[in-house]
Write a structure and sequence with these properties.
Length: 296
């Protein structure tokens, strides 16, 4: 009898030890978040807010700059979490990437997923793609938090599916000039909700007018990289090495405010608009980072 009790006690101790190890491993595992962007909602809502129109042909969207701003904001909101990636959902005829979609797909930490685009330029299949990704990532414990930029009521099932596996879903929206641009049932289901205002989107949306028209030809990547290095030298001289130490851990991303100051100053020096010029924007940041890292 005593031997049986001793054996039972040993098994209980062994079970407790295994549980403690599992809890310790879970505690060491960092939280992970992902950002899910419904591009149809983004273009329509941001276009109306900043440019006064939902027609994509009437304005330019600096997708690269905006994605980096969203990543930077997520880094602040989910302070103890790491980014898995940004998922960008859009429509395309026969699911063939446009040049703009291809440039977005080439960005680091970004995955472009395409639904179809019908004859009336309406997206088809995008909501189901979002649900599939949200549910799969939550089921496999790949994410603990999902930031969803969208507004369609059809996304409710995607939210419920992710929550069913323990993920928290945070709805991000775009300020509406009048009323709401997100379905109420979607607002009811999410774990939290926040809205980005006009000031947040202004740097990334502009009407299609010829900026700096007739002033300069398109600069080369080397020209833009050199300007980026010039601005970095001025930035470092003005702020000192302490600011540099704070900035370096975020590489290759820049805080939104720094990135926008860099863009505006570079456009002034080049006398050329870099909005919508993904390759030149990357060259500008490469030059900026290259100089800063060379001084560390």
């Amino acid at each position: 009898m005593n031997d049986d009790l001793a054996a039972l006690g040993a098994r209980i101790d062994r079970t407790n030890e295994l549980l403690q190890r599992m809890l310790a491993e879970v505690a060491k595992t960092p939280s992970t978040h992902a950002i899910f962007v419904d591009a149809g909602y983004l273009y329509a809502a941001a276009g109306r807010l900043v440019a006064g129109t939902e027609d994509r042909r009437a304005f330019d969207l600096d997708a690269e700059g905006l994605i980096e701003a969203l990543i930077d904001r997520a880094r602040t909101i989910f302070a103890d979490s790491r980014l898995l990636r940004v998922y960008w959902y859009d429509g395309a005829r026969r699911r063939i990437h446009t040049a703009e979609q291809q440039s977005i797909a080439e960005l680091p930490d970004v995955k472009v997923r395409l639904g179809n685009l019908n004859a009336n330029n309406q997206q088809k299949g995008v909501d189901s793609l979002i649900r599939t990704d949200l549910e799969s990532l939550a089921r496999h414990r790949a994410i603990s938090d999902a930031a969803l930029l969208g507004g369609d009521e059809d996304l409710v099932s995607a939210v419920e599916a992710a929550q069913g596996y323990g993920a928290r879903v945070h709805l991000w929206g775009i300020e509406a000039p009048e009323g709401r641009n997100q379905a109420e049932p979607l607002l009811w289901e999410v774990d939290s909700q926040r809205t980005f205002d006009l000031d947040f989107f202004k740097p990334y949306v502009s009407r299609r007018t010829a900026a700096y028209e007739g002033t300069a030809a398109r600069p080369t990547r080397e020209d833009v990289r050199f300007v980026g290095a010039q601005i970095a030298a001025k930035w470092l001289a003005a702020r000192g090495r302490e600011s540099l130490v704070e900035l370096l851990p975020g590489h290759p991303y820049l805080p939104g405010s720094v990135d926008q100051d860099l863009l505006v100053e570079a456009e002034g020096l080049l006398q050329y608009s870099l909005r919508g010029q993904a390759d030149l924007r990357r060259a500008l940041r490469d030059g900026f980072w290259g100089h800063l890292q060379g001084q560390y």
